[in-house]
Amino acid sequence: MTGNGWSAGRRARRAGQWAPRRPRMVGPGLGLGAALLVAGCGLVFVMTVQSRPLIAVPLFLVAIVVGATPMCVREGPWALALALCLMFLLVVASLGVGQAVLNWRGEETPATVTKILHVERSAGAGERYHCTLRLPNGRTKYLTDRDACGASTRVGDRVHVYVDPYNRVDFPNAMAPWPWLTPPVVGTALGVLTVTAAVTASQAMRSWRRTR
């Protein structure tokens, strides 16, 4: 057991000595890995946020931690740029993809309000309501849009929402998605942010190496 522990420690030290000497390889690899992890967590979140929140919410928090880590590990403009890039990537992956799918193949459908939950807000933040909806196919969805779920909403009311007929997007929209937010636009944004994350991570690694 001691020999195995000693061997693992030597491997870790060798990896730590090897990484700063090869910033062109390690930097882009770290940036690409972080970008894929953050984007993946964002996609899982938008697909499971209502049906499996015990999976979606922890993954979303992991993505936030990974996105903010560069600012905590290393100060400087490149670390800040990488963190901002990863956070924008999370927003695009979690919200942009869902809106793009609804814009591409979303269908407007009537739904019945079956339950209303009043969420207490602090002073100045305004009140918020969560509505449980039953779709014509029997599925249950949740809505927090203030225009369709507010103080005047009552159980039994009929509202119109936009849903994904294939049930890949796990939350409905009370309003029509933005027409310009199409899958090609979101896909291009994800690609550009992923490449930018790899480039900024490489520059951050080089900056860290020069200061050592």
Query: Count the helices. How many?
Result: 5
The gyration radius over C-alpha positions equals 22 Å
Biggest beta sheet attributes: 4 strands, antiparallel
Q: Beta-strand level of the residues, as a percent range? A: 5-15%
H-E string: HHHHEEEEH
* Helix-and-strand structural type: alpha+beta
**What characteristic shape results from the CA principal axes?**
elongated
Helical content (DSSP H or I, runs of 4+): 55-70%
Strand order of the largest sheet: 3-2-1-4
Count of individual beta strands: 4
Describe the structure.
With 212 residues, the protein is of the alpha+beta class. It has 5 helices and 4 strands. The chain has a 4-stranded antiparallel beta sheet, with no helix packed on it. Strand 1 and strand 2 (128-134) form a beta hairpin. Helix 2 packs parallel to helix 4. Mean pLDDT is 81; it is low at 1-6 and 11-19.
Structure characteristics:
single chain, four-stranded antiparallel sheet, disordered N terminus, 212 residues, alpha+beta, 4 strands, 59% helix
Helix and strand topology:
Layout: H1 2-21, H2 23-48, H3 53-73, H4 77-105, E1 107-119, E2 128-134, E3 140-143, E4 158-163, H5 183-211
Summarize the structure.
The chain has 5 helices and 4 strands, in the order ααααββββα.
